[in-house]
Amino acid sequence: MITILAIETSCDETAAAVITDGYRIRSSIVASQIDLHAQYGGVFPEVASRAHAEAISAVVSQALAEANTSYADLDAIAVTQGPGLIGSLLVGINFAKGLALATGLPLLGINHLEGHIYSLWLAEDFAEPGFPLLALIVSGGHSELALMRDHGLYQRIGGTIDDAAGEAFDKVGRLLGLPFPGGPAIERAARDGDPRAFRFPIAKTDGEYDFSFSGLKTAVMRAVTVQPTARRSKRERGDERAAALRDDVNIADVASSFQEALTEALVRTTCRAAVDFDVRAILLAGGVSANSLLRRKLAAALDLPLWTPPLALCTDNAAMIGAAAHFRFREGFRSSLDFEARASWRLSEDVYAT
Ligand code: KG4
Ligand code: ZN
Questions:
Q1: Which of 197, 233, 272, 325 is deepest in the core (most CB within 10 A)?
Q2: What is the per-residue pLDDT across 286-307, written as a single tens digit (0 to 9) for each?
Q3: Index of the ligand 1 atom closest to the CA of residue 170
Q4: Which residues are in the CB-under-5-Å shell of ion ligand 2?
Q5: Which of 98, 92, 136, 89 is nearest to 117 (CA)?
């Protein structure tokens, strides 16, 4: 039996979890900062790291208490090493290093994207479908398409060249005056809308499996805002917060048409890659994987199993970091106590060696 305490602070959730044998969640605590960031309409890095520092100790204690565990029962401590906001990552990393030093437990610095992939292993009915697998990780910070050839063996085949999918949801949500985060708000608003009311563009990219969402965001802005006047500055024209909505805008129609275009872009590229690489199944993970239209479309598009995490594990959490750490721990991977936080860090074949 392997029991791991995992800590995640890469963005705006302070999270800790205790995981036994890879997939059994003994506890998973997530202290969300959404209310703190709502006033800024996005994650404010300074505010995030301060909130992590205030919450981390209590969140870790609660995770241990709910799992009925003490440090003596643990085999390792895992923490998100990156990618993410440096100031936020450092709070979790330094806390985990302190714990490792004090307890003598081994420490594992885990890649956050690998964590999202392993959120699938925490789904109750998940049966490992064999390899290769195609993982689409779509969140506020990332939109990545990765081939998984085996446990821990990745090849990044594409991703966004500008905005992440969740970022596009959040920006368009803000433009439409919807609450933060934009993803769930747009999904709700879209229920009463017509997905064909607007024909928003699906961008073509040079990379065969890449995405681009900034043109889509601009197209939405053009469709719903008062047309730029000569008096508006260049900065204002590019700033969704400064734009004034037209009076006759049907928010539900815009939300629905935007969601339609964005999910269509994700589905088309993912399906093409799934066929080209002859994968056994598709893994959909990250905050945007909570989107039910995306799930429905992907499931219908291909004659392949589609695995999605339980809703609570789509957005950032520490359970997924513990699950990824479990497989790494079994392989013998350990981090040295002086490892550094990594703001950007792509999945690759030897992700922990590069
Ligand atoms: O994985 P996550 O918690 O954080 C990052 O690692 O970035 O993802 C958060 C993102 C936000 O952009 C949010 O708008 C989006 O996931 N999101 C959704 C939905 N729920 C969350 N996007 C679309 N539809 C949803 N239902
Ligand atoms: Zn994430």
A1: 325
A2: 999 999 999 999 999 989 999 9
A3: 14
A4: 139, 316
A5: 136
112 CA to centre of own chain: 8
Q: Whose CA is nearest to atom 3 of ligand 1?
A: 315
Residue nearest to atom 16 of ligand 1 (CA): 287
Closest listed residue to residue 132, CA positions, set 114, 147, 121: 147
Q: From atom 21 of ligand 1, which residue's Cα is the shortest distance away?
A: 287
Q: Which of 138, 206, 162, 135 is nearest to 351 (CA)?
A: 135
**Rounded CA separation 190/245 (Å):** 17
Would you say the C-alpha torsion 98, 103, 104, 106 has a positive or negative sign? negative
DSSP H helices, 5-107, are: 34-38, 45-66, 86-103
What are 89-118's pLDDT values in tens digits? 999 999 999 999 999 999 999 999 999 999
Distance CA 169, CA 291 (A): 11
Measured CA to CA, the distance from residue 237 to residue 218 in angstroms comes to 10
CA distance 78 to 322: 6
Q: Which residues line ligand 1 (CB under 6 A)?
A: 11, 139-141, 166, 169-170, 181-184, 187, 286-288, 290-291, 315-316
What lies within 8 Å, CB to CB, of 325 at 6+ separation is 4, 6, 19, 76, 78, 108, 110
CA of 183 to the centre of ligand 1 (A): 6
